[in-house]
Amino acid sequence: MKTFAISGRCIAAPPPADWREHLTLMLGAKPRRIGTWAELGLYGALRCMADAGETTLPEDAIIMLASRRGTYTATDLVLGQIHDDLPMPQAFLQTQPSQLLALLAAQTNWRGHACFFADTELHALLRLAAAQAVDGGILLGWVDEMDGGSTNWLRLRHCASVETGFVSALQYDINFNKIIYLQISAAGLQLRHADS
Questions:
Q1: What three-state secondary structure class fits 159?
Q2: What pTM, to 2 d.p., does this model score?
Q3: Helix, strand, coil proportions of the chain in percent (round to 5)?
Q4: Are 78 and 90 in contact (CB under 8 A)?
Q5: 179, 173, 171, 7: which is closest to 187 by C-alpha?
Q6: What is the rounded distance in angstroms from the CA atom of residue 166 to the CA atom of residue 188?
Q7: Can you tell me the distance from the alpha carbon of 96 to that of 156, in angstroms, rounded to the nearest whole number?
Q8: Taking a C-beta distance cutoff of 8 angstroms, is the pair 172, 193 a contact?
């Protein structure tokens, strides 16, 4: 069994109207040559890390990123360009979800293991994260452009086992704003709220 404390979070679905201005402030300059999907992801990840009191991640931390449809808007644009000629290089780069991971690593001066998963079910992603996590913990995100956009991130850190107050995630509508602990075991994913 592994127990994680949520030390930081950004739950923005949809993000606030001025999220791009906040991203510019966090970066110190307006981002260039990246698409909306990557901007949303960068905004959420940096807010989550700030909430956890971090400007970079430990080298042994991992970043896991998931999305229902990934870089859908950029991919649709490139497919339209292919009908006429070769796609524009900048548009093609925006179709690559791993671009966000590279941008985040560069922005935080971090080197480590990062990966992207398309359309991953939440419980499966959390079980995989728990299996791979080491002492540095996990920065876990879900980013989508659909329906006004969303950028949801959690900073998970290993902690000593907490014995009481957990409920099965399958019996509960997961609201990451209220959850303070996740416990992953052979019995599945369990959650503990701040008021438990």
A1: coil
A2: 0.85
A3: 35, 30, 35
A4: no
A5: 171
A6: 12
A7: 26
A8: no
Strand order in the sheet with 2-12: 113-118, 62-67, 138-144, 150-158, 2-12, 179-185, 188-193, 166-168
Q: Are 79 and 38 in contact (CB under 8 A)?
A: no
What distance in Å separates the CA atoms of residue 115 and residue 148, rounded to the nearest whole number?
Answer: 24
Longest dimension (CA), the chain: 61
What is the pLDDT at residue 79?
65
Distance CA 117, CA 98 (A): 10
Encode pLDDT of 13-71 as tens digits. Answer: 899 999 999 999 999 998 887 888 888 999 999 999 999 999 999 999 999 998 877 66
Tell me the C-alpha distance between 82 and 90, whole Å: 14
Q: In whole angstroms, give the CA distance from residue 37 to residue 52.
A: 23
Separation between Cα atoms, residue 146 and residue 50, nearest integer Å: 25
